[in-house]
Amino acid sequence: MEWEKKLELLKYISSDLQIIHENDIIHCDLHSGNIFQNDLHNAYIGDLGIAKSINKTLDKEVRGIYGSLPYVAPEVLRGNPFTNASDIYSFGMLMWEISSGSLVFSDYKDDGSNLIVEICFNELRPNILKGTATCYANLLKKCWDKDPNKRPSAIEIHETILSWKNNPEILLEFLKSDKEMVIENNGFIDTVDNTIYTSQLLSYIN
User: Fold this and answer.
1) What residues make up the domain containing 61?
2) Domain count within the chain
3) What pTM was computed for the model?
């Protein structure tokens, strides 16, 4: 998938997230399994509110959360509540998947406990592919920042993506990235084995 189409998908997803946050809603379970497409050029966020309701119930019953581990922000894994900023962390993972064509942390699929430790204590993040446009890589890093207060808002992300699409110089950088990035599976996520992004009960880390 070329960058022009990737940016178009991210434009729609970030617009949806902006609307969600503007209505004082936190998604709490934003991952690739909850992104739906009418076609390759359009996308929208689904399953709105399900995880939030489940997590309210879990908070009263057990020390855990409901979510998809690779997309859950480190502060939430430590027992802090979901926030707009934790949704932004999840959005960063979606950005990485769209850029790489791979499922995030797929090599940790059967080792959830170790993945939690790596995310929370060693600040593990996916490797940004060589050749990724600098502006895109920088936004990824901001979304993944360990400090939730340093992550951009949904409206900032949406406006940034729109500015890229309207800037000829930046579009040239993305065009160059199309030629330089090496994507093993031709830039399209294989969702046949979707185990890694199935939401489930997760225990807080001590």
Assistant:
1) 3-183+192-202
2) 1
3) 0.86
